[in-house]
Amino acid sequence: MSQQSKKRTQASLSAPFDKYIDEKLRAEITGISRTTWWRLERQGKTPPVYRIGQMKRWLLSEILEYFTD
């Protein structure tokens, strides 16, 4: 199991009521604009994005964990 898979599994187990959030809510929580987030994402400095069809979503627990570390 890869390191990223382990982290995702741990996040899933530690947050049984976790939910996916959209771009608008992600921006509200982080205070980071779409453009700046896109730049950080390209540099590999953001939590993983989950694609559901053409929609981009993030796990709330991973966003919160990212900013508390």
**Number of separate domains:** 1
Q: Which strand-content bin applies to the residues?
A: 5-15%
Number of helices, counting only DSSP H or I runs of 4 residues or more:
4
Structural class: alpha+beta
* SSE arrangement, N to C: HEHHEEH
Q: What can be said about the biggest beta sheet?
A: 3 strands, antiparallel
Mean pLDDT: 86
Helical fraction: 55-70%
Distance between the termini: 23 Å
The best one-word shape is: globular
Taking strands numbered 1, 2, ... along the chain, how are they ordered across the largest sheet? 1-3-2
Low-confidence stretches: none
> Count the strands?
3
Gyration radius from CA atoms, angstroms: 12 Å
Summarize the structure in words:
It is a single chain. The protein has one domain. It has 4 helices and 3 strands. The protein has helices at 3-14, 23-30, 34-42, 60-68, and strands spanning 20-21, 50-52, 55-59. It has a 3-stranded antiparallel sheet with strand order 1-3-2. The protein has 69 residues and is an alpha+beta fold. It is 55% helix and 14% strand.
